[in-house]
Amino acid sequence: MPHDRRTLDEGDRPRKVGVPVILWVLLGLGGVLALGCGVTVFAVLMYGATTIQSGKGGGGVVTRTYTREEFRTAVVGKTEAEVIAAVGKPDSTSDSGTKMWIYKNRTTDPVTGKTDPSAFVHFGRDGAVETVNY
């Protein structure tokens, strides 16, 4: 006997066609994950630009540039720990007879106003800074 649309049984109802709820949930989570990755990449790129500008390239700390006189005053007569507290860790060190710390792009030449490529901090036998050369 032919079925009339108005008399279909519950089991004979046509199935809904569409996207399952689980697929919508997965798409939503994927979108949130993609957005999070995008924000992370942006933050990493900005962090890298900041460290490159600071001349450290990976330290993550933006360093201050001193006049030669400010730098000399901050380090002469100080111990290693006091120097680090005053101007930060050196970019490199040397210990060939006397201890020397090298700070790159941290001081400016008072005559030209340009940044010195390096400041050489020399420690004396007593463990305190004796001289600074540029």
Describe this entry's structure for a reader.
This protein is rod-shaped. It has a four-stranded antiparallel sheet, with no helix packed on it. A two-stranded parallel sheet has the order 1-4. The N and C termini lie far apart (104 Å). It has two domains: 19-62, no CATH class; 66-133, Beta-lactamase Inhibitory Protein, Chain:B, domain 1 (2-Layer Sandwich). It is built from three helices and six strands, in the order H-E-H-H-E-E-E-E-E. The protein has 134 residues and is an alpha+beta fold. The model is unreliable at 49-58 (pLDDT under 50). The protein is 37% helix and 20% strand.
What's the helix and strand layout?
Layout: H1 21-54, E1 66-67, H2 68-75, H3 80-87, E2 92-96, E3 98-104, E4 107-108, E5 118-123, E6 129-133
List the defining traits of the structure above.
134 residues, alpha+beta, Beta-lactamase Inhibitory Protein, Chain:B, domain 1, four-stranded antiparallel beta sheet, two-stranded parallel sheet, 6 strands, 37% helix, 20% strand
Strand order of the main beta sheet, please? 2-3-5-6
Task: From the alpha carbons, calculate the radius of gyration and give it in angstroms.
Answer: 33 Å
Structural class category:
alpha+beta
Number of helices: 3
**Approximate helicity band:** 25-40%
Detail the poorly predicted runs.
49-58
Strand content: 15-25%
Instruction: Determine and state the CATH class of the largest domain.
Output: Alpha Beta
Shape: rod-shaped
CATH topology of the largest domain, what is it called?
Answer: Beta-lactamase Inhibitory Protein, Chain:B, domain 1
CATH architectural type of the largest domain = 2-Layer Sandwich
User: What is the count of structural domains?
Assistant: 2
Compressed to H and E, one letter per element, the order equals HEHHEEEEE
Largest sheet descriptor: 4 strands, antiparallel
Distance between the termini: 104 Å
Number of strands: 6
- What average pLDDT do the residues reach? 81
